[in-house]
Design brief:
Keywords: Membrane, Transmembrane, Transmembrane helix. It is a single chain. This protein has 79 residues and is mainly α. The chain contains four helices and no strands.
Amino acid sequence: MKLTGYRLIVILTTAGFGLSKAALSYQGKSTTPTTLEWLYGIIITVGLYWIGLYEHNSSQRLPSLFITDYAAPLRRIFK
């Protein structure tokens, strides 16, 4: 399985959301994590879903997002 740009965006936005929500919760805030949850749950997820619909039907459009495999360069960076 390839690690495409789209998949990297999904992984990084999910991790960023989870980490920021956890940090805000640990600081004792209750409204901000809930707002973040709604924002991510509605806007970000719907946007990523729409973009994801084109992943298998991109017909060579946006190769950096759907075709290029970034696994090897990332392995070199994090080695």
